[in-house]
Each structure stands twice: as structure tokens, then as C-alpha cells.
Amino acid sequence: MGLPNDLLGVLRQWLPASARASLNRFLYEAAYRIPAVARSGFFNGGLMPLSPDLMELPGLGGTPSQANLYHFVMLDQLAGLVWEPARLLEIGCGAGGGLRYARAAWPRSALIGVDASGSAIAAATARLAGQPGITVMQARGEALPLPDAVFDVVISIGTLTNVGAGAFLREAARVMLPGAYLSLSAGTGWSAVDYAAMLRRHGAEAGLELIRFEEITPGTMAAIAADAEAHAAMIARLPFFLRGQAREWAALPGSVRHARYLAGARRDMAAVFQRVA
User: Fold this and answer.
1) Over the stretch 22-40, which tens digit does the pLDDT of each residue have?
2) Domains detected in the chain
3) Nearest 5°: phi and psi at 85?
4) For 41, left (φ over 0), alpha (ψ -120 to 50), or beta?
5) How far apart (Å, rounded) are the C-alpha atoms in residues 125 and 135?
6) How far apart are CA 153 and CA 151, in angstroms?
7) 18: which residues sit within 8 A by CB, 6+ positions away?
8) What are the residues facing 210 on neighbouring strands?
9) Phi then psi for 151, rounded to 5 degrees?
């Protein structure tokens, strides 16, 4: 009898929720120790169609659709609201591709990135070497080692999916200046109406007003299809024990996550909050 294609997936079915969360954190940390992952620059599902203003930057890594998701969150979602922030924070910066893109978009901004993974921070440090005005540090989104009321803009891609909305929004609000903006994207099993209501409620409790919200699932699905071949090739180079989980992270066709997208049981949302003065 052969081994299952996803031993960790089989194991996860038998683990309690707390143990599954610990396993996911371990796998996330382990993934960034693999050169192919560290070089990719991004750890997101991407977004299509590509913006006509999308920048092509040397050493960015990842796929165009993954860079495009950052372009959408940093620039398109904040259009008409932000010119160039004095200080920007990215919660969940991964290997630094988003901060590299932010530096090109906003060359005079002071940029700070945090990520729960020490391996991701090591990869980001290497990628951003020589880029002025960028600081990265290991920290969780619900416990930022940063002072109150510092940032004009906070961005985050995917972190809210793995951190409770109440804790995430309270901590983001704490480090934001009055009038500052938080722009994010996240995946969920909730409907768009229910998710927006939840974000609005938790945001209000944290002193944030939800000012923009939209479902971006069709763009996510188009990016998954466009990147499937490239992601499958990269996953084939990973250690055997990580391939099943990597297929889920990439939502490759045939994965449980991809099936949930097709069934409408998983959706991606984008939102902008403003810190109430």
C-alpha cells in the first residue's frame, strides 16, 4: 500500500483545532526555510486581471498576479485617499515582495514589515538589503512591538484569515494615527454580507470605520488558474512532506481549498478602514 499524497492532510483531520493551528504555524515557518519559497517574494493567491499600472521590478519574485494583489491593496483600494504615506506598516510581510513593491510606489515613505515567521523575516532581510528606509521584524499581528499612533497607512494580505478579526483590528487601530487607513484582503467561508457586517462591528469596537468593501473571489480564481502551472512546478521541487500543504496554500485544482472556492464555501474579500479621530 502506498503512502497518501498528503500525510499531513490526513493527520490534520484527526487533530483538535488548537493542534491544527500549531501545525500550520510550524509548516509556515518550515516553508520559508526552503530556498524556492524564500525566493518567491510573495505568499498570496494573486489577483487578476493585471492592473495596467502594474510595475515590473527586478528581484521581486513571485508571479505578476501575486504582485498585482499588492498593487490592488496598496494603490487601487486607496485611490483618492492616500498620496504618499510618511510611514507604512505591513502586517504579514512574508519574504518582502510587497515591501519591495511599496518602496517603488512610495520612494519617500518609511516602511516597516512584521511577520510571525523568523524564517520569512530572514528572507525579507536578504531581499530588501540595500533598499533604504525599510525595517522588518518578527512579530504577530495581534501583538505588535510598536508604539501607539505611528502609521499613516497599514496594509495586510491574508493575515486576517489566520488571526481573530477583533484582536487584529484592535492592534492595527492602536498603531494608526487618527485619520489613517488600513487596507487589507482576506479569505473566509462567510458570505460577503455577513463578513462585511462582522468587519464593521469589530472595526467600530476598535475605533475604525469600514469605508470600502468588495468581494474579489473572481479575480482570485482567475489568478489561481493563471498561476497553476508555475505553482505546480515549484511545489514539485519541495520536500515530500510539504507538497500537500503547499497545494492547499496555492489552491491548485484538485485541492480541498480549490474545491471550496468552486462550491462557494470559500471567498476572498478586500476592505479599507479609516481610523476615527
Assistant:
1) 666 777 777 777 777 767 7
2) 7-275 (3.40.50.150)
3) -70, 150
4) left
5) 8
6) 5
7) none
8) 273
9) -105, 140
